[in-house]
Predict the structure.
Amino acid sequence: MSAEIPKRTTRTQLFVDPEVQGALVARAIIYWIVCTLTIALLLLCWRVLTGPVRPLWFHLENLWYFHSPALIASLIVLPVAITDMIRVSNRFAGPMVRLRHGMRALAKGRKVPPIQFRQDDFWYEFAEEFNAVVRQVDQLRECERETREPEESPDDSLPVAAGSHA
């Protein structure tokens, strides 16, 4: 199974499987929101517990004043992180899309060419295993085709002479 991995072109489409990759993006945004709120709550609690007694609005105002640059920085980094996550997810979503298309074609009885993944894709072995299944299905279809063809008998293959009643 140590076949040489062919080099394929880079992907031009950012979302290759919108359902899967959209769910990943939504999760990343939810994690960012939860993390940001957790940090803000912990910072607020820390200020209230360790600082002098002051009204809550004062602590909230100070929290915003001192920590808003970090929040803005994380907002700037969030799209970069999400874009990178989508690109990395292309390495497993892309191969699954290709396999799904190949399986659909195979199930419809079509001839399926060998599937090749890009050099940096995950699950490269799936392509080799799928291609082995395709070869097996092709052999079985060919065998079935051969058994369906009527076999010519030696008597049927001889021409009948004109005027003879066979």
About this structure: The longest helix spans residues 56-107. The two ends are 61 Å apart (CA to CA). The mean pLDDT is 86.
